[in-house]
Amino acid sequence: MPLLRLPVVAGCLLYVLLYGLATLRYPGGTHADPQAPGFSWMQNYWCNLLDATALNGAPNTARPVALLATGVLAATLLLFWWGFAGRALVQRPLRRAMRACGIAAMAVAAMLPFGPHDPVLYTASTLGLVPLAGTYIGLCHLGERALLRAGLVVIALIAANNLCYHTPGLFGYLALVQKLTFLYFLGWTALVEVRTAPSTA
Description:
Elements: H1 7-25, H2 46-50, H3 63-87, H4 92-109, H5 117-141, H6 145-166, H7 174-196
């Protein structure tokens, strides 16, 4: 089954490509140095790409690409959770909860460029824990123990993000940890899709 025939895998790859393109279009500025040129992988965040104005005060030309990437990410995760819930041998209440909370999480996440940052992020993350937990349970049912163990790293990375965010001495590492979390989570999601999606001719 060619990978690019899987919408979820294609969506993960497209998001990464759009993210990279958005960073190339970012005018510049970080919280530490508003006059810094371009996008800093160590000091800028995904949300900086979504702001209407860059941190250096210029109109943010990265925003249209970042908005498109956000839509692609939301649609990709929604497709993944919807499809996985249907084939993971979980009971109907959990399957419904995974799909309902997945839809709600992605709908809230799509408001990130327009709403208050922290409440939107925390709400989407909390809702997303339900389909994520359902994915772990589904992997157990399918006997995919290696994927389950790999998925637990996602929890560790989420914890690391929160630790960096709430610890002044570690805050400088947050931007890097955020990017590593994105890449690892998307890679794991794509691998789960490849390993568990039904074969097609």
